[in-house]
Amino acid sequence: MLIRGIMVKKQDVSFLSQDDTLKQALTRLEEKGYTTFPVLDGNKFSGIITRRKIFETFFKGNFSDREEFLNTMRVKDILIDELETVSYDALFDETMVKLMSSRYDFLPVVSEENGEFMGIVTRNNILQTFEKGMGLDKKSYKLSIIVNDFKGTLARLTSLIAENDANIVGMATFDAEVMNLKFVELKVDTGNINELRENLRKNGFKVWEG
Predict the structure, then answer these.
(1) What is the span of the domain harbouring residue 172?
(2) So what's the pLDDT on residue 193?
């Protein structure tokens, strides 16, 4: 899955310009109820601005007049520019790893061709996609299965489920702490969960129902 399919596109993102005053930035942040905004230089991403950075700069800089500070200082003067970006064509899993290790709640998405700002991907985007992938947004049954980590095992498991007129709406696999074993978490839509569970057990799968 490419990140372009789940990101928040530019037209739906609130952002600031480098030349906006801190007064404008703070007003926009308060209006939207956000703590952070992306900052653009033309159509290119240049960094972010946060409420915390604005207040820290004021108090640590020994400015005497708050309004003068907000009206004369520009966003570019206190821009945070170390934020990592992701490509418009980035994969979901690599983006998830980058975002989970970031101190911020979103990553900017840019075009590899010309660096144009395309939008953002948020922690909420990642969570919602993961929930859909696991079938957590649908009414279904949960099955926890231990399988041998051999070639063809998952194919046999999914075939058995299909033969029982059940539909897999979500699946995730995890390495067990035992050699050649994997945990498989399934969300399935079926009219008879008990029959499905028993048929899987008869075919050698260790199954627990959740």
Answers:
(1) 138-209
(2) 87
